[in-house]
Amino acid sequence: MFIVKMAIPELKSLRVNRLDFESKQVIGKGHFGDVELVVEKHTKDIFAMKVLKKDNLLNHRDIAFYEYERDIMASSSSPFLTQLHYAFQDFQNLYLVMDYHPGGDFANLIDKFNGTLPEESAKFYIAELLLAVKHLHTMGFAHRDIKPENMMLDRVGHLKLIDFGSSAKLNRDGKICVCMPVGTSEYLAPEVLIVNIYYVFI
């Protein structure tokens, strides 16, 4: 028993925690917290770290969204979904340490082309997005907030879908049922906005 008690502090010290990362700047802000550009001190690897304030996770549904996001990134094998590297917590926050994509988001790419991508580029990125969404559906989830700001570009220009905090689990019939619209209003389908309860078939 004495040996076990002695080992517990040592094991805790080996856990990944906030002090293992140096924050460089805030690169995104969301409803529940911020996303920071961080450097892992030991390896010098660069990551994006989402910091979610526990006080903002008001109910079990909010916590479920966090768990969905964590599980999707941790379990995905798709090259078009952002990968999770670490997940941990302290008294104030939950942390998700994931891939950092230096190419910026798709909205910025569209702006560089004055709002219209060349046709071949559009085909290329639509194909990668479809592969990302298909893989997510095979995992049993619907994203529900696909928009240019949630489509990042990696260092070689491939698309990476991010931000699974609005995702929902599909039922056995491959559909979801919700009582209110979820996602960004500018990108919601009209039929989602005009009904109180809607089903989505995948």
Automatic annotation (TrEMBL):
Pfam families: Pkinase (PF00069). The keyword Nucleotide-binding applies. Gene3D superfamilies: Phosphorylase Kinase, domain 1, Transferase(Phosphotransferase) domain 1. SUPFAM superfamilies: Protein kinase-like (PK-like). It catalyses: L-threonyl-[protein] + ATP = O-phospho-L-threonyl-[protein] + ADP + H(+); L-seryl-[protein] + ATP = O-phospho-L-seryl-[protein] + ADP + H(+). Residues 21-202 form the Protein kinase domain. Keywords: ATP-binding, Kinase, Nucleotide-binding, Phosphoprotein, Serine/threonine-protein kinase, Transferase. One of its GO terms (molecular function) is ATP binding. InterPro entries: Kinase-like_dom_sf (IPR011009), Prot_kinase_dom (IPR000719), Protein_kinase_ATP_BS (IPR017441), Rho-assoc_Ser/Thr_Kinase (IPR050839), Ser/Thr_kinase_AS (IPR008271). One of its GO terms (biological process) is actomyosin structure organization. It comes from the Eukaryota. GO terms for cellular component: cytoplasm; cytoskeleton. ATP binds at residue 50. Belongs to the protein kinase superfamily. This is Protein kinase domain-containing protein. It comes from Aphis craccivora (Cowpea aphid). The lineage of its organism: Eukaryota, Metazoa, Ecdysozoa, Arthropoda, Hexapoda.
